[in-house]
Amino acid sequence: MTAEAVSQNLIKILCSHGGSMEYKMLKEKFKGQPRETQQLLSEILQDKSRFALRQGDPGSRPERVISPNTVVAAKTAVRLCKKYPNETCHNCRDLHLCKFFVYGSCRYSKEQCRNIHDIKSGHNLQVLKRYGLQNLDEHQLSALLLQNDSSLLPEVCVHYNKGSGKFGSCTYQTSCSKLHICLHTMRGNCKFGNKCNRSHKFDGVAWKILKGRGLPEERIYQLQEIYHNIFIIKDCRTADEESCKIRSRESSVSSNSEGDSDEICLYYISKYCSFKEKCMNVHFHLPYKWEVFDGHSWSEIINMEQVEKDFCNPENTVSSGSPSVDYQNMTTGLAKVRRLSTVSSLTKKLHFNLTTKWIWYWKDEFGKWIEYGKQVTTHHLSSVTSDDLEEKFLANSDDCVTFIAGQHEYTLSFKDMTQQNQKHKTKREVRRRPRFISQLDVEKIKRSSDSSGGQTLMSKTIPDNWDKSATPEYGYKLVQLALESEEFKQVLGHFQRTMPNATVSKISRIQNQDLWEMFQIQKEQMKKKSGDKYVDERLLFHGTEKSLVNAICHQNFDWRICGVHGTSYGKGSYFARDASYSHSYSNARCSENILFVAQVLVGKFIKGSSSYNRPPSKDGSNMNFYDSCVDNVDNPSIFVIFDRCQIYPAYVIEYSMAPSKINLSKLVYPKKIMSIW
Q1: What SS3 string covers 469-493?
Q2: What's residue 460's pLDDT?
Q3: Residues 108, 117: Cα–Cα separation, whole Å
Q4: Closest CA to 585 of 115, 144, 89
Q5: Which of 134, 421, 504, 595 has the highest count of CB atoms within 10 angstroms of its CB?
Q6: Segment (H or E) for 411
Q7: Rounded to the nearest 10 degrees, how much is the dihedral formed by the CA atoms of 625, 629, 632, 635?
Q8: Residues 6+ away with beta carbon under 8 Å from 195
Q9: Domains 358-434 and 468-666 share a fold
Q10: Helix spans in 324-368 (H)
């Protein structure tokens, strides 16, 4: 039996047993097979495109060794087509199937249903063969799709699993569209059992959500096992890493449960976050938050302000008071501790007042901590400042920095947090600590910001074409463009270049001073960085859900929320040259579609990769990076932006695919492109 045949057989067996099995049980299925086939098993299971592994025995986790208790879950890249049956798709690589047929609940017969029930139809068989799934039957394919295609089942509510009370920290409570169920139960590792404060059953609102999706009762009773498999697959590392293993939450003080972030939302702490419960960052009233892990969830530390104040002093390795926090090991007693924070003040968030100012210190021979770049009588001034080090640290936290103080040269290692004299080889300890800010300070800053009308580092300059009377000091305003205006014709012409059959009902200009200012600051920084007077700026399209329009207009694009359709060229926000491409992602749930038109600073770009979290370096250094990634360097049609400051959401187009009611023949398109483009 060939390796491919064994691999396909493994998938078939797994899907016949609910989508996953322990390795020892899986191996039993191959008893009687030739020895070569049995020896192939562990090697084939390393194929991360088809199998996800979770170590069943926490005490035995060698990286590339599969233990008898290792749980193997079936993986696939095949999905149900999102356009079928409402739209035509060409060269589609997804299955054209009735969703309710996959659930096992379609009330129509194969002949009566307008959607396909045949997994072996001409198109579907071709798709299945491409993924090596042509030998699966209907039930096996359904099991595989349910644990891999995220569009088929609702998410578990992360916010329900945080905080206390009946609904945790979920502000939507009974109207939440996600499942209020214990995340650890779904993972199969809840330690509290019947004493757990979270629900362990699909009942109440969760039952209604699932029934509302069309899932039959017998399928709902299987969901705990299905979600268990979903989380095995989610927790499995991406294919470009050396081995597939569960993410070690114990090794990081910044994350515990699915969707947790170690970043505090600046919009929420400043005034208001439009993403609400969808926000990927933490909503808290201070720019820092100390938490302790009780083995199940994270909760706030008592005397948080004192713990923070002590931490800001580089002399301290433990906090005062009881219980104390060990800052070196990030523990209190035997429990783990973590510190959440707003982003560093050097991350281009210039218009926010509550970013975190980090200060770098070194310890001299007398045990005194000295801030870099500050003059002291007993030591020479270093050639680098605290801000210089912070900037380099943010670029690469494993880097080394060489600097001069007096006649001596030193090397500072971020990894070891030490500086070494290159001549005498003496080492000094280095620490990075935040500047202290109390709750009272936060309230004063917020009041000051309100009274100043939100003024920032740059003067409030706005484009000439904006309506000055509809430009709020904070937030945004949508200004509908007049049909006869040059601006409307320009945007319409750009849109209809690839969408000639669409009917545009409205085009609105987004007027957001804060986002515009960030965009202008970024443009100036990119000009200085490149040494050019010109930065490549393009007008591009982005399709998304109508429910996200308010959040995007208010806070710009967040790829983790707005860019969930794919990461082929990197983990960032995707924009298209052609409106027709973005149209396929507009996710219209009714007759009306939404597209954003954005001004995007694409700058210098390179072909992207799914592994990129930011553009790669131009020269191998840690300071000179490309500005964006594309699908094709010679003729780019897709652009991936990793820094939201490079984006200004300029217009919202509302349209449908019905016949046009606007007499386009009477519109005279301008010959010149508007200056803002």
Answers
A1: HHCCCCCCEEEECCCCCHHHHHHHH
A2: 54
A3: 10
A4: 89
A5: 595
A6: strand 408-413
A7: -90
A8: none
A9: no
A10: none
CATH code of domain 358-434:
3.30.720.50
- Cα gap 130→124, rounded to integer Å: 10
Q: Which helix (H) or strand (E) holds 310?
A: helix 304-312
- Residues 659, 662: Cα–Cα separation, whole Å: 9
Give Dmax (Cα) for the chain: 89
Q: Please report, as a single letter, which amino acid is at residue 474.
A: Y
Q: Residue 509 carries which side chain, given as an amino acid letter? A: R
Residues listed for the chain: 677
What does the block give as tokens for 457? 């580092």
The larger pLDDT score, comparing residue 246 to residue 194, is at 194
Name the one residue in this structure whose structure tokens are 């009566």: 112
The answer to whether 53 touches 70, Cβ cutoff 8 Å, is yes
Tokens representing 187 are 């993972």
Residue 249 DSSP class:
G
The SS3 of residue 541 is strand
Q: Residue 236: is it exposed, middle or buried by C-beta count within 10 angstroms (0-12/13-18/19+)?
A: buried
Question: What sign has the CA pseudo-torsion 216, 218, 220, 226?
Answer: negative
Ranges of H-type helices in 30-106: 35-44, 99-103
List CB contacts of 373: < 8 A, sequence separation 6 or more.
381, 382, 384, 385, 386, 387, 388
Closest CA to 509 of 340, 346, 677: 677
Query: Which residue carries 């984006």 as its tokens?
Result: 647
Residue whose C-alpha is closest to residue 153's, from 161, 141, 163, 145: 145
Q: Exposure pattern of 219-231 as b/e (b: 16+ CB <10 Å)?
A: bbebbebbbbbbb
In our burial notation (b when 16+ CB lie closer than 10 A, e otherwise), range 583-604 reads: bebbebeeebbbbbbbbbbbbb
Comparison of pLDDT for 212 and 247, the residue scoring more: 212
The Cα–Cα gap between 53 and 70 comes to: 7
Most confidently predicted of 85-94, 317-326, 599-608: 599-608
Sole residue written with tokens 């300059």: 461
Got the DSSP string for 146-162? HTT-TTSSPPB-TTTTS
Give the C-alpha separation, 186 to 231, whole Å.
8
* Residues 226, 147 contacting (CB under 8 angstroms): yes
Per-residue model confidence as pLDDT tens digits over 277-294: 767 788 899 999 999 987
Per the prediction, the chain carries an average pLDDT of 83
Pair 106, 100: CB distance under 8 Å: yes
Q: Considering only 96-110, 372-386, 443-457, 461-475, which range has the smallest mean pLDDT? A: 443-457
1 Cα distance to chain centroid: 41
Which residues have C-beta within 8 Å of that of residue 658, sequence separation ≥ 6? Answer: 503, 591
Q: Where are the domains of the chain?
A: 1-153+213-245, 266-341, 358-434, 468-666
Q: Do residues 432 and 417 make contact, with C-beta atoms less than 8 angstroms apart?
A: yes
List the Cα angle 34/35/37 in 5-degree steps.
Answer: 70
pLDDT surpassing 80 at residue 407: yes
d(CA 422, CA 133) in angstroms, rounded, equals: 60
pTM passes above 0.70:
no
Partners of 308 in beta bridges: none
Reported as a single tens digit per residue, the pLDDT across 299-321 is 889 889 999 999 999 999 999 98
The matching CATH number, chosen from 3.90.228.10, 3.20.70.20, 3.30.70.660, 3.30.470.20, for 468-666 is 3.90.228.10
Can you give the pLDDT at residue 30? 86
Contact (Cβ atoms closer than 8 angstroms) between residue 320 and residue 328 = no
The residue assigned the tokens 């009588």 is: 377
